[in-house]
Design a protein that fits this description.
Layout (H helix, E strand, L loop, with lengths): L4 H7 L6 H17 L4 E6 L3 E3 L7 E3 L5 H12 L3 E7 L13 H5 L1 E4 L6 E4 L1 H20 L2 E6 L2 H12 L9 E5 L6 E2 L22 E2 L4 H8 L4 E8 L2 H15 L3 E6 L6 E6 L2 E6 L2 H5 L4 H21 L2
Parallel strand pairs: 1-4, 1-8, 4-7, 8-11, 11-12
Antiparallel strand pairs: 2-3, 5-6, 9-10, 12-13, 13-14
Bound molecules: ligand 9Z3.
GO molecular function, one term: ligase activity
Keywords: Ligase
Family: Belongs to the PPC synthetase family.
Length: about 325
């Protein structure tokens, strides 16, 4: 029998800095509640499932973090306050445009004087400037908060803790659950403390089912919020059926269904009585349009209808 969500939290300890994060999230929410703005909690990246307490090996879930980080930029652009709950070292908003060697290639060094100077190559200014402007605007508005996780258990604790501060936004809160969350894990009580030794032979690792926290999240933690989850599959034949199954089980508002191979160009927004294809053509991709922009525009409209519907009741 899988654990209930209550048992999961009782058996898996919170991250050591949970209280600091709680304060940060509380302050952030309090500040933006005053201004009446909409808020979105975006989850992004994959969770890890450690095989040892002093973790050398772990099972990972697929997600680069592109969906979440691109969406965070578009939500900020249209005025939402954004809490970005993301897998540490996965792709981050703004930085994604200039990460790694790409960034170093944009710079040039002038060593002609005693004090060398570094500047952005003039050929790169047009590319970096819009990103930098948007990044600075997000920083100045103080509407962007990043919270990092690595393991499944940390993710679930941080998700629950963040949800404590969203009910005061009522229907103006959106949850955009794009993180790839493991369905299986090794319970803390069954995990060896130290690195598994090969001299002991091939290990048999028993994975338990992770309780579905979408259930308490929708019904108890943020009952008035606009909750969107993602459904990732690799088989087209079961995608919509699984999305509908999740909707009828958890009773949230929309499931964004995507296949791993086509996730950059096609997402189906499944609602209890409808489905809308969000598609990016080859031409649009070449023009630099991202599907996350289309998803966020669609959700903004749906969220508006939801808020209007909730306040008129
Ligand atoms: C998604 O389906 C996301 O769209 C992707 C984005 C992870 C495919 P990337 O980060 O990819 O841009 O590389 N997220 C949800 C994945 C997931 O694990 N969903 C669970 C499920 O399908 C429910 S929470 O059962």
């Amino acid at each position: 029998m899988p654990l209930t969500w209550e048992q999961f939290y009782a058996e898996n300890p919170p991250p050591s800095d949970l209280e600091q994060t709680r304060h940060k999230v509380e302050n952030f929410c309090r500040k933006h509640l005053d201004h009446g703005s909409r808020i979105v909690l975006i989850t992004s990246g994959g969770t890890t499932v450690p095989l040892e307490h002093h973790t050398v090996r772990f099972v990972d879930n697929f997600s680069a973090g592109t969906r979440g980080s691109a969406s965070a930029e578009y939500f900020l652009e249209i005025g939402y306050s954004v809490i970005f709950l993301y897998r540490l070292k996965s792709i981050e908003p703004y930085l994604r445009h200039v990460a790694g060697a790409k960034f170093l290639d944009m710079l040039e060094v002038d060593e002609s004087s005693e004090n060398p100077t570094i500047s952005v190559k003039s050929s790169e200014v047009q590319q970096i400037l819009p990103v930098l402007r948007k990044y600075k605007a997000a920083q100045e508005s103080q509407k962007f908060l990043q919270v990092g996780f690595t393991t499944l258990s940390d993710y679930l604790w941080l998700l629950k803790t963040t949800c404590e501060f969203l009910p005061s936004f009522g229907s103006r809160a959106m949850l955009y659950l794009a993180a790839a969350v493991s369905d299986f894990y090794v319970p803390a009580t069954q995990m060896p403390t130290h690195k598994i030794q090969s001299q002991d032979g091939a290990p048999t690792i028993q994975l338990d089912l992770v309780p579905k926290v979408l259930q308490p999240l929708v019904s108890l933690w943020v009952p008035d919020a606009f909750v969107i989850s993602f459904k990732l599959e690799t088989d087209e034949n079961i995608l919509i059926k699984k999305a509908r199954g999740a909707l009828s089980k958890y009773k949230h508002k929309i499931v964004l269904a995507n296949l791993m191979d086509t996730r950059r160009s096609r997402v189906v927004a499944v609602t209890p009585d409808d489905q809308t294809e969000i598609i990016l053509t080859e031409e649009q991709t070449q023009q630099g349009l991202e599907i996350e922009k289309c998803i966020v525009d669609y959700l903004k409209e749906e969220h508006t209808k939801f808020i209007v519907g909730s306040t008129s009741q």
